[in-house]
Design a protein that fits this description.
Structural class: mainly beta
Order of helices and strands: EEEEHEEEE
Helix content: under 10%
Number of domains: 1
Oligomer: single chain
Number of strands: 8
CATH class: Mainly Beta
Strand content: over 45%
CATH superfamily: Hcp1-like
């Protein structure tokens, strides 16, 4: 995406051609789609009576936080390393939590944005879009649950 002519100093939106994830020295995994980075704090309703007037006061407060997630899609490549890692998670292995990076790259392979994924683990893997005799690519969707996602 290019900036309009004559405009300077204005941040521009980025675009990405691929998404690269690497964890704790493992080989990088390449994805074609970033479905989303999600971070959420549930609002909690708080109802109280004003001590002076007796009026009922309704407010929203910060509630329960949900761990951030990162959801990526790619064509199944046959390596199986993400499924093996998910197996470690399913068996309760504490070593399955890893810290890594998510890099959004342009078509030339240059990083456009980088995020640090702290103590991440593959909480969900879906393999789908399969139809016998069709020519579509079989897709693997991986959701990583993290303690923190930090833009770097």
């Amino acid at each position: 995406m290019t900036m309009p002519t004559g405009v300077s100093g204005i941040p521009q939106a980025i675009s990405a051609a691929r998404f690269v994830v690497s964890f704790d020295g493992t080989a990088p995994s390449y994805f074609s789609e970033l479905s989303g980075i999600t971070s959420e704090v549930e609002p909690t309703e708080y109802i109280a009576a004003d001590a002076r007037t007796g009026a009922i006061v309704h407010t929203k407060q910060f509630g329960k936080t949900k761990p951030p997630t990162v959801t990526l899609k790619r064509g199944v490549d046959g390596t199986g390393h993400l499924m093996a890692w998910h197996g470690m998670v399913r068996s309760g292995n504490p070593g399955a939590r890893m810290t890594g990076t998510l890099e959004l790259q342009n078509a030339s392979g240059q990083p456009q944005a980088t995020y640090r994924l702290i103590n991440a683990w593959p909480s969900k893997i879906e393999i789908g879009n399969m139809k016998a005799g069709a020519s579509e690519i079989v897709l693997e969707t991986v959701t990583f649950t993290c303690e923190e996602v930090i833009p770097t």
